[in-house]
Amino acid sequence: MTTRRVLLVLIGAVALSVGLIATSQLGAQDREVKPAATHPAHGSLAGIPQRGIVLGSPDAPLTLVEYADLQCPYCAEWAVRTFPVLVSDYVRTGKLRIVFHGLAFLGPDSDTALRTALAAGREDRLWDVVAGFYARQGAENGWITDELVDDVVTEAGLDSGRLRDARSESSVTAELRNAQAAADAAGVHGTPSFQLGRTGGALELVKLRSLAPEGITPAIDALLRR
Q: Which residue of 18, 96, 133, 194 could cross-link 90, Cys pair, CB 3.0 to 4.6 Å?
């Protein structure tokens, strides 16, 4: 290869690298850490039973399993647009229970947020903590600070110091591994993903039509009519 060709290759590589960095920075600007705000789920959860990773009555005829990464912007969009509708129309009325399987696809902040939520699940407040993180979701890997975690946990009515200590306990690690194993068995390769079926029976992956309520409610209604 001539000296001229070597220079051209190097210049091209540098240009590509600069372009990728610029794209990354633009993406980060689009997803700055949000100020504290009331997530729609907070109000809708009042009075609904929570037990560990499960929201809703154990006697509900249908179960929806949600696979989510707390840093995933599409998960946050689904949580804002569709989750409150499901809670109001199906969970609160005893037709549906929802199981949360958290995954840490996107890096260390995913793991920290997920462990915090799972620790809160030991005190039956996982869904409140999940809503708190989605309300403040920021650019990937850099927005989960101790101060933000404390705000989310305190807002959920829990002791932040106790919960942060619990994140490394074996039961939390086991729950995280169980979720990953369930995702692998179901063939889940991205978030958000969902399985739906009769409680205690076989669950099937649901192909969302959109992140809006009508993307999943037809499948729920069809099962309820059987």
A: 96
195 three-state secondary structure: strand
Buried b (16+ CB within 10 A) or exposed e, 89-116: ebbbeebbbbbbbbbbebeebbbbbbbb
For the stretch 154-213, pLDDT in tens is 999 999 999 999 999 999 999 999 999 999 999 999 999 999 999 999 999 999 989 999
Classify residue 208 by burial, with Cβ atoms within 10 Å: 0-12, 13-18, 19+. middle
- The 10 Å Cβ neighbour count of residue 53 is 22
Domain span including residue 131: 35-225
CATH number at residue 113: 3.40.30.10
Greatest pairwise CA separation for the chain in angstroms: 74
In the chain, the number of structural domains is 2
Say whether both 141 and 171 belong to one domain: yes
Q: Are residues 16 and 75 in the same domain?
A: no
